[in-house]
Model the fold of this input.
Amino acid sequence: MRDSLRSTVFSLLLGLVGVAAVAVVPSAAPAQDSTDFRAYLESLRPKARAMGIRDATLDSVFPTLTPNPRVIALDQTQPGGGAYSPIPNFEPYRRQHVDAARISRGRIAYQANRARLARIEAETGVPEEIMVAIYGHETNYGSYTGDFDLIRSLATLAHEGRRRALFEPELLATLKMLDNGVPRSRLIGSWAGATGYPQFLPSVYLRLAKDGDGDGRADIWTSEADALASIANYFVQAGWRRGQPWGVAVSVPSSFDRASVAAKTNPARCPRVFNRHSRWLTMAEWRKLGMFPASGIWPADTMMATLLEPDGPGKTAYLLTGNYRAILDYNCSNFYALSVGLLADAVK
Done:
């Protein structure tokens, strides 16, 4: 399996199952013992040193940290989405996330960044509108990036221990960012560790953040140029194919035999996402089965695609290419990936 970079960790952190949910957050969680918390932080020193993090950096930050009970409460109330729980229709989510206001703001961001977007697309093959759509979905074009102290939040979650294997590496990555010179004031984001305009996890920032404006820094918190270049770099590493669409909306004939195209493999990750996809066929094969694109335009006959009917038979369906899988790598949710693609198309 390809290193899934951000999505495997982040979808596990947030319990993503293809549906956005709002959890009712308790006002408090059980307090963590401060002595044990300090001992846990000190136990990280060998791992931090192995990453090249200086003791002076740890000495400057460890004494300032205390557990954050609200973070524990947020983590414990994430929706689980059991293997057999029903998945609602996509259309209500689409109306909420690909709405007129988000499209309008996306077009403004698109026009304001055209020169740098065109340059990044020429270099990477990642379409301008895909970069803008990710920016729009993650932080509403930079209007909200989170207000949690990343180091405190991740230290709390790692110490709590329920999902230490996920949170401890992100805590260490955040400490590495601090040691590399990223100001503590920049290390702000979601309760689960996502930060900046692209909402990168710290480990992803260390791998993939790019300097898009030539000032020698990868500032994904205040520089749109850096954020957009970093998003594009993410997709390059996720396998984005130049010149290929993410997918096309199609109508499915009423006589279509869905069993004939059912996938026969058991997905290794995100089964609730990938089990909704058909097996791969070429666009020419889909056309022979009676599919018809909403735009009236077919991609290349040899292009491979899977079928997804997010609202069930009789509603708009989508033929999804390998580039759709790259969007899923960013966030393993069909609703998220479809909305990114549809917002990108509307912005363009």
Summary: The two ends are 32 Å apart (CA to CA).
